[in-house]
Amino acid sequence: MDRIAALRAFTAVADAESFSDAATRLKMSKSAISKHITALEQDLGVKLLNRTTRRVSLTVAGGNYVRRAERVLLELDEADQMVRQEAAAPSGRLRIAAPMTFGIMHLGDFLASFLKQYPGITVDLNLNDRYVDIVDEHVDLAIRIGKLKDSSLQARSLAPSRVILCGAPKYLKAHGTPKKPKDLLQHQCLTYTYADGTTTWKLKGSSMNVGGPVHCNNGDILRQMALKGLGLVMLPSFIVGADLKRGALVSVMEDHVPQEQYISAVYPPGRFVPAPVRAFIDYMVAACNPKPSWDA
Q: Which of 196, 211, 255, 289 ranks highest by number of CB atoms within 10 Å?
């Protein structure tokens, strides 16, 4: 008996509740379908299907068996597909969603190098700071910054994302350097506008409700304001890293900033990960570790 063929015949009949429909789906004759299932029942020593002239239904044993049979066939199909993809260069369309500032400042360079390495892949990139539902919006992969929400999505860390509290030298010279959280109440703080409208900076062991002349939903705009000396900002190092290296911004209160977070890739659930998704994630991990370019 061909066990795999028998399982495919059995699960097809169980799903369609019809030998004729199952035969059409599998492009086999009804008699071949019947022989496979009869051989399977004889081998197991149990009846899997109730057959009448009008309908086909699962027995209790058949109902228990079909769920496991479907899992076996799914894993086999995924293994076949994985091996086929590994034998060939990854190709196909890759739909990516990413935050606006990270995308503009860094993702273009990453993608240019990635696409040179994998010319068979085409990328559809959507830059947007809103939360993208990758399942409903048919996105293959989304890049998320910070702590991930609990979900059924798969995730992998791509790179560390340090949080930096900083200001321009001329601002610090004019207003002084804050040493502890309460000092921030005496400073101009340029804040990111969250969906709930709060302007709270979360520090180690405390939170400060700060204020200043600019509130914005884009980190690069806040960075530009800080460079002009308008106040302090608390932003990821991938936004201000280059400015820190050249001394245009100075890190302050390093002992009080939050713990290191991560830039992560999230993608739909399932054992099988499409080759373009896997290739892009592996590329980003290799390119950003042990230190990404903005922290090097």
A: 211
